[in-house]
Amino acid sequence: MTEVYYKIDSREERLPKWAQDHINQLRSGIRTMQRALEQDTSDANTFLECQHPIEPEALGKDSRIIFKVDDSESSWLDTFRVHIEKGTLKIYAAGTVTIRPTSSNCLDIRMER
Length: 113
Fold this sequence. Notes:
Layout: H1 17-38, E1 46-48, E2 57-60, E3 65-68, E4 79-85, E5 88-93, E6 97-103, E7 106-111
Antiparallel strand pairs: 1-2, 3-4, 4-5, 6-7
């Protein structure tokens, strides 16, 4: 069983319904993140690599990653969704993608506007 990292306050039941719903959504997000953190990473093929000397962190086998192209809070239109499937890196975008080789081992991938 997963350990709960938050305390439920008995005063919550007196809050407005919208506030209770919002708190429950936040708790759901916490539970989702807990499950992701507690997964077995012994067979991981996806890693988070930092820019400073810290060992890459395993994200788990076939993890899916979302990259936001813009800093704006716009929807999924400015995102790349990436994962590994059967040994192949899959990249999805909402629009047309341009791929430009920059060297024999590097690609620039851009979303067309």
